[in-house]
User: What shape does this take?
Amino acid sequence: MSGFLASIGLPEIVAGLIVLALNAYVLMGGADFGGGVWDLLAGGPRRKEQREHIASSIAPIWEANHVWLIIVVVMLFTAFPIVYATLATVLHIPLLVMLVGIVLRGSAFVFRSYGGEKYGGRRGWGLAFAVASTVTPILLGVIIGAVASGDVAAAAARVGHASFVDVFVIPWLAPFPIAVGLFALALFAFLAAVYLALGATDPELQNDFRRRALGAAAVVFVLAIIALLVARSGAPIVAEGVTGAPWAIALHLCTGAAAVTAILALWTRRYGLARIAAAGQVSFILWGWVLAQYPFVIPPALTIRQAAAPPVTLELLLIGLAAGAAILIPSLRYLFKTFAPAAK
Amino acid sequence: MSDLFAARSQMALSLGFHIIFAEIGIALPLLMVIAEWRWRRTGDAVYLQLAKRWAKGSAILFAVGAVSGTVLSFELGLLWPKFMQFAGAIVGLPFSLEGFAFFTEAIFLGVYLYGWDRISPRAHLAAGLIVAASGAASAVFVVMVNAWMNTPAGVVLDAGTITGIDPIAGMFNPSTVQQALHMLLAAYAATGLAVAGIHAAILLRRPALPFHRHALIVALAVGAPAAILQPLSGDLSARTVARWQPVKLAALEAQFETERGAPLRIGGWPDADARQTKFALEIPSGLSLAAFHDPNAEVKGLSAFPRDAWPPLLPVHFGFQIMVALGTAMAVVSLWAAVVAVRRRDVAGSVWLLRALAVVAPFGFIATEAGWTVTEVGRQPWVVQGILRTADAVTPMPGLIVPLLVFTALYFLLGAIVIALVAGMVRETA
Ligand code: HDD
Ligand code: HEM
Ligand code: HEM
Assistant: This one.
């Protein structure tokens, strides 16, 4: 432990902040994508009400939630330019598909709410929104899985020496990244169902999302096991970190406790608690991945230290972040307070 | 099509698409806030209606601006990984600050759009003002990056590798102030006059509608001053280019020979092989005067530089001519409107002024595209002037024609829908 603490310096702090921003994106933007999944899967007698509840919950906040992704990207290319360049080169294809998903999701959602029905039909846009919301998280997971697998680093070293497929396709079109992609999708859907249950005013509607949340929790569990099994061969470094490292047990216990709490809270209809527990569960999983590959950013080639920009950039970035946070945090609180679901 | 060319085309397409939404995203919130403020001051419900309309427009355009901007922040790496690897540590800082400006903008746009009955009138107006201010701030930050690409500062190079950096000096490079000013004015002029032109066209057919009279006046209040100032700011930009990027100046003026008392050319066809510009109307000593404020100043011609350092001449020269021609027209019409207003005549009552406004409506956006063509193509073959060549920055990923086609199709679809939606909104009021 003391060795770990001694290894913390400016680059590690900035890397931690990037993960924190990614954490925020996953909790907020991820849930918006999850909402799109439930739009796609809306059904039963209250299908229309479900879709309306999803739309009105997302509308005021999705843009702000989306910006977390941009913050992650700009911090990454400021503080770790070579990481950004490597990912953008080797993972060009999944990033591109993810971008198309992001474009379609955002624009379809707005077009649907602002009179786009004349061009393509309200349901047409709804469908584009829902499908894009489903595809994008899978790709986000695939990208994370590819990094964790260690194959991105290997491919980057072979650019120009190996075939197109070996460099630009195999690193991400593999069992482990795909398992992580599906896992990410299930997690986002789970988060969204929990938030939507909390926000629903009609008890029947609330129950719809409660049942969906419980179902999603079961899927998350199954997919987690699958991902872990695939990781043994598909992502050895991370698998070893997740199972072998001294802190791993503690983190597993936290994740498990959060998951159980979330399910119990849903079961007993304590939605406020369920939201906190679900958010905790997802965050623990994310940090579990990060710690498992520490100190690598792109295992097994680039460590945080090796990839970091010069200290002057990191220092200025931290100052900029502090100033930005001083504006942002109160603004975000104001946003969420203004549009908080009516307490009950 | 070579991969390099596909990458350049995709970058140009994405930026050319994004900049339209960015300009509207900078200026439309200002119109919306002014309309709301007039409503609160006068109680005239037409202003409220107007504010709500413009807010709705802002929501649609902002969303498309946000998604196309997200695409850009990834594309920088997807297409130019070596540029980002090289420059990330320097230009990352303004990009990060821009990120915070976006954040503030997105938060308060949400508050503004959905908070009409949830927060106090004062808080609502303040939210709108914050949206307008943070839009302008994000433009300034991102233009800092582009200015750095044109006149890089804050890097110490030793045989091609960076040995020291100063990101603050990079942010405040010799082009920053001029380019940021010119960009902001462009956003207000283009959006203001476009909105004014749309309402002028409707007023020509239905002169009595108060909604469109109010809209015209608010839009002109923002667009006309900016359009009048724009040529002055352009002169500042041109002098900066003359000092720091002499090849670019020579290309945009189609000046082949180095000479004192160089003429200003209007029109003309630069012939790179014959090294002369044909069919131009030449104003003696005009260029020396414009670029250096001295009729006898020496202007470096293209011949003073090796041929492979020349940017493509036709797009740069014509881009510049188009921008200046359209900018002059916009400034003249704006001055005319200003004269009418100062004489306390009814701006909405002059049929000829309304016609002129309707004609110049699209000019600002066309001038913007032309201006960026001048800046970006004029910097070729460099992505970072004098330091990194575009050809060395491109990704090794082959088959770049595919993403180019995907994004072309996507942007055409989005563009068509946005136009249809906005046209639908305008028709509802006409
Ligand atoms: C409404 C739009 C608009 C209008 C009316 C004008 N411009 Fe412009 N111009 C732009 C919009 C623009 C721009 C798109 O915003 C650019 C691209 C980069 C920049 O900083 O601004 C630009 C660039 C740009 C540059 C290149 C700067 C560089 O490469 O660093 C010059 C020399 C001028 N302009 C000069 C002028 C002059 C002399 C104008 C006289 C009327 C003028 N512009 C009108
Ligand atoms: C601050 C903002 C901008 C940045 C950081 C930026 C960055 C870049 C980069 C990295 C390239 C590729 C390398 C090159 O060809 O030089 C490029 C090219 C280009 N950009 Fe920009 N750009 C910005 C603004 C714009 C805008 C708003 C436009 C609007 C039309 C634009 C138009 C172009 C064009 C036409 C090219 C292709 C030039 C050529 O290859 O001949 N740029 N830009
Ligand atoms: C001179 C050129 C540019 C200007 C003036 C500009 C300005 C703006 C503005 C005002 C917005 C707010 C959204 C809106 O109101 O529509 C925006 C959005 C955005 N821009 Fe640009 N931009 C430029 C070029 C770029 C470039 C080169 C990038 C690439 C990194 C970029 C990235 C973004 C991103 C990521 C967003 C979305 C922010 C959000 O989600 O709210 N922009 N831009």
